[in-house]
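Margin note from the TA: students keep mixing up input and output lines. Inputs are the sequences; the output is the structure of the whole complex. Example:
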Amino acid sequence: MGAIVPRKSPLPPSQESGFVLPLALGVSMLLLLGSLSLQTVALQGHLDQVSQASRGRDEDALVGAAQRLVGELNRRHPCLLPLPLSRWPQDGQACAGLPQQQALLGVGGSFGGRLIAWHPDLHQAEALIEADPTGPGGIARRAAFSVALQADPPRALSPRLLGLRGVAP
Amino acid sequence: MSLVELLLATGLLLGSSAASLGVWSQVSATLVKDRQTLEQLAGLEAEVQAVEARLQDPNQDPLGQHLSCPEQLQRLVARLENQHPQAGVVRTLETPAGSELLLIRLRSGEQERRRLYSPAAFGGCGELPANLPAVDPALAMAKGGGDGAI
């Protein structure tokens, strides 16, 4: 009858008992990291969508302000149309006094805005318009518009949005 | 391998799998909603462009100086009423009292766009002001230009 010889493990006791827990920990970390990166991608897409919606609203406000401004110029102060903005105070007095000019530079109301620049050419003008900031802490966005000009009688036709031009400094 | 180690590893895996599944389902719901919103925004943008093109269409009833502003406003409204909006977009035309402006509300799902148009911006309307001085555009430009603030 032989003596019972205890079977020897090929690994030291510490290694044999410790491989399941690190493995589970590694798999768990991989799962969580994968989920987090997926959530980051989804968040980025969500921010893009919010930004697109906000851009649309900004464009709407700016187009509304440009329509009101050009309409007002056509109806009441067409002599200002061929004049650059810097010459309105002197040469534009004939058809629009200072109060009317100030009103054009800061049209109020829910679709209000400000005229920042007006560069007329023979057949068209380029206008830079700033929309009133919307809501508390809102940003005043600016956009450039191209406006076709007619000489006789002086008239502006349908402002066309050229693009957003940043925010007010 | 002890029983305690096995239980701990199982708990860890179950917990992380549940958390991961929760995040995945939340992300997939967000992605579906964002996709719907993007489709709505794209539909609204297409409708905005269609409205703009329709209002500027030279083949429609002419707009201009010979019409009064209310008449011109009616022609703008008629141009749009004869055109169906894009699928999924609800278009509402409003003429705020006393303003002689056309407010177009476009709605698709939870998204909304609003465009304001002035009939006078389509080449003017009504009579010219009596005190209109003659300004030669070429002369005005020759005197120099630029922007400025008052």
